[in-house]
Amino acid sequence: MTQELLRRRLPEEPKKLLRSAHDLRHAAWALTVDHRRAKAAVQDALGPLRRRAAREQLASMPVARLKDVTDGRLRLPALERAEIETVLQVLDTTPYELQCLPGIGPQTANQIHAAAGQIAEAAERVASIRIGLDRADAETTALVVALHLLVDAGPDVPRAAEAAVEVDERLSPLINMAAPAVNWWRRLFSTRHRREQAMDALAALAELLREERARGTPGLLAQASVDLLRPRVSSDEAWIDFELRASDYYALLAELAALDSERDPGEGFLPDDITRRVKEQPLDERHLRVSLRGYQSFGARFALAQRRVLLGDEMGLGKTVQAIAAIAHLSVTEATHFLVACPASVLINWLREIDARSALLAHPVHGPDRADALADWVRDGGIAVTTLDVLHTLRVPDGVRIGMLVVDEAHFVKNPDTRRSRAVAAWCARTQRVLFLSGTPMENRVEEFRNLVAHLQPALVPDIRRSDAAMGPRAFRAAVAPAYLRRNQHDVLVELPDVVHVDEWEEFSSADAAAYRRAVASGNFMAMRNAAYAVPRRSAKLRRVVELVEEAAANELKVVVFSFFRDVLATVDAALGERAHGPISGSVPPAGRQAMVDAFTAEPGHAVLLSQIQAGGTGLNLQAASVVIICEPQVKPTLESQAVARAHRMGQVRPVQVHRILSTDSVDQRMLDLLQGKSALFDAYARRSDIAEASPEAVDISEQALARQIVEEEQLRLETSRPA
């Protein structure tokens, strides 16, 4: 499309148009921030009033109510003799002061005080807040002043806030896509397809701005922002306004005091009491080497506060990191030995994640050296990482206390009759803190969920009913909240990076290793690269690919599987059965490739598309996919970046997960080591993806040189040589 044609399509000059779009998006963002801040001020003002109302209730509550919390186990005559008659008096007495009373020991004192604290939490949750001129104290006045800003701003503010969210969601992808059309430098290095996309985006922006102007959105946002930025009024003015329109204040208070509209989705929509307990749980991060996102910190605290739980976050949200964070906290505060049991396919990933994300020592209790590794762990402490199938063989001295047992891919132990399930049950019985991890949603698998919870909190099992699941995911999660936390990607989308890269390290099976040694001996670089798929029935890499696809299916995510090799794609296709579209390859004409993509996109929910990375990595729009699996590392880094860019592009509504399948002690490791020298330059170019796509020679290493060096190194390491 020429610039002249573009000008005929647009009502105003491109730069001015893009600037108008930026201005409207900024106005929407600013209003959203201001609205959230105003509502947060109301919540802050409600806190002291809830606590005061709870204390008033506790002041009239007889101390005998403590027995209700402890099933009648506490004996209270000592309190009555000390003239402690109400729950509030117990709450205001420290455990040390309680144990100084005749007849009360340290343990009983702690139990009494904890029971009072539980009642206080419950009272605070249900406390009703009343505003009245007869209660014009400092705390109530602070609430009235905070409410006044929203009441005075008027009923248009909520409507404006909703419009702001919609405007931001619609404008943001178009603005980013249109940028090359008004920047001559980016336009110079853009492909023709990219330039046409940018111009189409400008035309779409023009239409969107026309619609929003016709609806009066800019004026609505501007007025709402002005209203929310007004200075706070004095307490006298706020009370006078309250007298004039008390019904408006009460209506707004009823809406905001419920807290549900303000609940952070990263908290999994848990009940208030559990959310409060989790937030109060400390998390010592001194042994961590990673900054946790908000929802990840909450997940680690949930595991610590609730002690025996299932973390069911959707794949890609970092369940492993949350487990490591919980262990790291316990390693500072109360324990030295920890145990992780996982499928063999993710054991290497666990070891690498522990090493990269924490200062803790990891012991691979797996393979022929597992007895020595187990002895080292018993002696030195740290995290023992073993497989679910080896767990039943571990012999750990009774004197070694396990600070936390983590069971990854816990849905593998849903059948209580299997050996691995019995082994997990035995370890759960000897461990106070247990964390199950599973990305497979449990809301519609009630019986499986009951079996898992039986390992964790057996008392909760009778309360898990099919009727809760029938009411939908949120109702189910609320019913099982003491033992279950799940967040979906869209719940925490604002917390997530645009792309989540995960290196999936696998150990060769014996068949893989034999095929690899033959390839190395023959000096065949390409055979070395795909040797891990040579024996499909025993391929560790293939097993992990299938696991990732199955987890994506459980979460209704679309997947693209890339490989350089047609025979690898054929192997994956055979393993997946009839579920996969494609494969897209160099022999498929462009129209046929697009037809495959269209069929893949049109599938409702989960679908899989197979593609050669050099064929599907360019020219196709795969934004329906949010999971990308790369079966082996590529010699040219741009192949991977271009392939990911097919899914990670404007219009993608989910973060993209990229899983690269790698084998330890192999060509994969050697390739990554050698390509590291290019990584800094590649990153510099990759951040300007138009230049990277236009100039691959600037970032790619010579395939012949790399192949020759790797073959020689591997032959030397394995002491093989090309056959005569």
Automatic annotation (TrEMBL):
Domain of life: Bacteria
InterPro entries: Helicase_ATP-bd, Helicase_C-like, P-loop_NTPase, SNF2-like_sf, SNF2/RAD54-like_C, SNF2_N
Domain Helicase C-terminal: 541-707
Pfam name, any one: Helicase_C
SUPFAM superfamilies: P-loop containing nucleoside triphosphate hydrolases (SSF52540)
Molecular functions (GO terms): helicase activity
Alphabetical UniProt keywords: ATP-binding, Helicase, Hydrolase, Nucleotide-binding
Start and end residues of each Helicase ATP-binding domain: 300-459
Keyword check for Protein biosynthesis: no
Residues annotated as transmembrane: none
Name of protein: DEAD/DEAH box helicase
Organismal lineage: Bacteria, Bacillati, Actinomycetota, Actinomycetes, Streptosporangiales
